[in-house]
Amino acid sequence: MTTLLPGEFAELEPFAPGWCLATEPERYAKRLASSMEEMQAFYDAITKRAEEAIAYCDRFPLDEMPDDAVNVMRLLYSMITVSFPVEVWSQQWVPDAGAAALDCVIEPGP
Amino acid sequence: MPRWPKPPEGSWTEHYPELGTAPMSYDDSISPEFFELERKAIFGRAWLNVGRVEQLPRSGSYFTKEIQAARTSVVVVRDAGGEVRAFHNVCRHRGNKLVWNDLPKEETSGFCRQFTCKYHGWRYGLDGRLNFVQQEGEFFDLDKKDFGLVPVHCDVWAGFVFVNLAKEPEQTLPEFLGPMITNLDGYPFDKMTERWCYRSEVGANWKLYMDAFQEFYHAAVLHGSQAPAKFSAAAQQAGFEAPHYRLEGPHRLVSTSGVVTWELPNDMRKPMEDITRSGLFGPWDGPDLGIEKMPVGLNPAGCDPWGLDSFQLWPNFTILIWSGGWYLTYHYWPTTYNTHVFEGNLYFMPSRNARERLAREMAAATFKEYGLQDASTLEATQMMLESRAVTEFPLCDQEILCRHLHKVAADWVDDHRRSLAGG
Q1: What average pLDDT does the segment B377-382 reach?
Q2: pLDDT tens column, B171-221
C-alpha cells in the first residue's frame, strides 16, 4: 500500500488522507466540517510527534522537499489549524464571528 | 497613575486640541450622501497605496487595482526602462476595460509585452502609447499619438507603489507622507517577501474596520477568550495603555510595549505557541534584519521590550511593524457607504527551513483568528449605528486615533465642499 508519510510516522498515517491539505482554504474548510472529537484525536496524535516531525522536515531545503516530507509539513500546518478549536474555542469556528470571513488568497509554499 | 507618562495637557487627546473631547457622531459611517462626497474628496485626491514593487518583478509585469470608491480601475506596470507607471484601465477606442480576465470586476496580474484590448484589438505599449489600430485607414483623422492610455500619477516610496487620481496632485508623495512615515526609510521591506494575503468583503463602512484596528482598548475584552484564562485575567485587570500616540497631518501612529512571551509562566501560553515558538506577535526567534540600526521613525517611545508600531496612513492604508522583525499591511477599499473590501497582508523574511516556515504559519493562522474576532463586531456596529437610536458616542483617550480619522475625513470632505461652492 502506498503511504503518504515517511515510515517513522506510521501512526499518523490514518490522519494523512484527511489532513494533508495543500492550501489554507482547504484546511480551514476541513476544520469547520470536522467534529471536535475528530480534531482532538488528530491534535493528540500529532502534537506528541510534532518536534520529531519538524526535525524530519528540517533535513531538507524548503524548495526541494520530497513528497512525503511535504506531506508532513501539510500535516503540521493542519495541526496549527486545529489548535485553535482544540486549545481555545471548544468549537470549530471563532465565537460570534459567524458573519465574518478572511479568505487566504496568497500563501507561501511548500 | 498611568503606567506610561501622558503629555503635559493630561491626555493624548488634549495634546491635540483640534480634536476636542466631546462625544462623536458616527453619521459619516452611515450616510450614503457623505460617502458620495468621500469618493472625490478623499479617494480622488489622496495618494493611495496599491501594492508593492515586488509584485512587478520585471519589465512587462503588471497588476490591476479596482478603486471602486473612485469608480475606476488602474493598471500598474513596469515599463521597458524599469519605471513603474499607472494608467486608467480603459481602452481609448470605445471604453472597454483594457486588462481583465474572465470576470471584469476582478483584479488580475501577469506579464505582457503590450496591452491588447479584447474588443477591437487596439494595442498599447508598456509606456501607454497607442501602437496599433485595427484597420486604421477606416478612421477619420486619427493620430495615434493623441490616443495613448490615460496616465495616473504614480510614485514609489520604500517599495510601496502609490497612485493619485487627481489631475494634478496637491502634494508630491513624500510631502503627502511627511516625516513620521518617511522616517521608516531603511526598514528592510524589500527583503520581506514571504507573503500571506487575506481578503474579505465586509458589511460595514470602511472607517469602522480602521477603527477596529487603530485602538487596542478592545484587546483584553474582545480577544480575552483567545489566550489562556490566566493571561486574559491579567490583561483585563491591567487594561490597555499605549506608551505613545502621534498625529501628523492626516496620518497617525500608535506604538505599544511588548511582552516577552517565552519568559511568561507556562500556563500563560497556549501549547501550540510552545510547539511552534510563535504566536500573535510573530515568531519568537526573529530574523537578522541585516541593518545597522533601526529607522529613526520606529519605536518612538523607546520601549524595551517594544511591541509594535501601527502607522495609519491616510486614507485607507496601515503599515504595522512588529518588534519581532516582520510587518503587516491593511487596506480598506470602500465599495458603498456600508460595505468595503478588506485586505490584510503579512510579510516575513523568507523562511530558511521548515521550523521557520512553521513559526510563520502559526503567526499567520493566529492573525486570522484575531482578525475574525475584530471583523465580528463590524456588521453588528454598522446595523445599530444605522438605527440612529443613539447618535453620540463617547471615546476615551486610548481611542484618540479613531477620533482623528473621522476628523480628517470630515475636514477633507468640507474642503471639497468648499471648492465645489467655488470658495
Answers
A1: 94
A2: 999 999 999 999 999 999 999 999 999 999 999 999 999 999 898 888 888
A47·B275 Cβ contact <8 A: yes
Which among A84, A98, A106 is the nearest to B195, CB-wise? A106
Instruction: Round to whole Å and give the CA distance between B89 and B92.
Output: 10
| Chain B CB contacts of A58 below 8 Å | 353-355
* Max Cα-Cα span within chain B: 81
Interface of A with B (CB under 8 A): 24, 47, 50-51, 54, 57-58, 60-62, 65, 69, 73, 76-77, 79-81, 83-84, 87-89, 94-108, 110
Give the distance from residue B345's alpha carbon to the nearest chain A alpha carbon, in angstroms. 9
Cell, residue A89: 474555542
Q: What is the ipTM, given to two decimal places?
A: 0.98
CB-based contact (8 Å) between B279 and chain A? no
Q: What is the pLDDT of residues B119-167, one digit of tens each?
A: 999 999 999 999 999 999 999 999 999 999 999 999 999 999 999 999 9
Residue B64 β-bridge partners: B75
B208 interfacial to chain A (CB closer than 8 Å): no
In this structure, are residues B155 and B176 in contact, taking their beta carbons and an 8 Å threshold? no
Q: Which three cell numbers stand for residue B379?
A: 456588521
**Residue located via cell numbers 518617511:** B182
Sorted by sequence, the CB contacts under 8 Å of residue B29 that are 6+ apart come out as B204, B205, B207, B208, B337, B338, B382, B385
Q: Which one, of B216, B209, B214, lies nearest residue B332 by Cα? A: B209
Nearest CB neighbour to B375, from listed A24, A61, A102: A102
E strand or H helix that includes residue B298: none
Cα–Cα distance for residue pair A3/A9, rounded to 1 Å: 10
What letter represents residue B398's amino acid? Q
